[in-house]
Structure of Haem-NO-binding:
Amino acid sequence: MKGIVFTEFLDLVEDKFGMEMVDSIIEASELESEGVYTSIGTYNFSEMLSLLSNLSERTNITIDDLLLVYGEHFFSVIERSYIGLVDTYNDPIEMLASIENHIHVEVRKIYPEAELPTFIVEEKSKDLLIMVYKSSRAMYYFGLGLMNRTFKHFNTTAEITLEKIAEDGTEVRFIIRRN
């Protein structure tokens, strides 16, 4: 997993819970990296799971809810890191439908070895998008957070329903209906 995901997560934890919480979850997680990350480095996904678990334990916030908030936060990282990318779209459904064929292509230009989830569009119309998320990492709530912020960015709302295809969350269908 790319280091930017770790550095931004720890920045978010510091903003929301303080530096003491960052130190506490790093110490409790017994990380191979010792919690020292660079945005361009690559780190084991198990470290993110450990950080999330320890934060969840200390805050009584579910891992899914933490991932949701983190996904919403990460949208601003995308806006900063990929200047102009979001602005190439006029519509949230168009933007979300282009994750696989445009957005992930741009991400791979900067992080060629990034292990990104796959998004398969099953159905798309002006006010409906159905797509399947596939990843060995069950971080679909992170994706949901990104989707929520996408609609907020375009000053509109949507109802987003999740259907687990694989019980472990490695394959999930998102049904997105614009309000």
Q: What stands out?
A: The beta strands are 118-124, 128-134, 158-164, 171-178. Helices lie at 3-17, 19-29, 45-59, 63-81, 92-97, 99-110, 140-153. The chain has two domains: 3-61, 90-178. The chain is about 50% helix and 15% strand.
